[in-house]
Amino acid sequence: MHLIRDQFPGRREILTQIQSVEVMRIDREGSLKLRSGGPLAVVKDNDYPSARVDGRIPVEGFYMDDVDESGALVHLLVHVIGGKIDELEIYKEDGSPILIDPYEIELSKIYFY
Q1: What's the pTM?
Q2: What's the superkingdom here (predicted)?
Q3: Which DSSP helix (H) or strand (E) runs through 12?
Q4: Which has more pLDDT, 113 or 19?
């Protein structure tokens, strides 16, 4: 999971959890509900683009949903609840259908907060 490539508090524990994760697709955008065992992760919000009060999103990425990069952004957020990786949320900021599949996008085109 390339959203977990950079260092942040709880990263090591989340990588351990991912080794035995159960995955279920939960919406048309491709968001995933995640369930795993493993050690609890203590995470802190990345505080960007805006500070969140719940401290459950340690890492967030985005990409432009158009070939000429003029389209709306698609966001990719890792949620951690109670120390466990819980969801990979995928949404397009203007609510329109996603054109470039988040599982097909070139990694070099994903930017991270």
Answers
A1: 0.80
A2: Bacteria
A3: helix 11-18
A4: 19
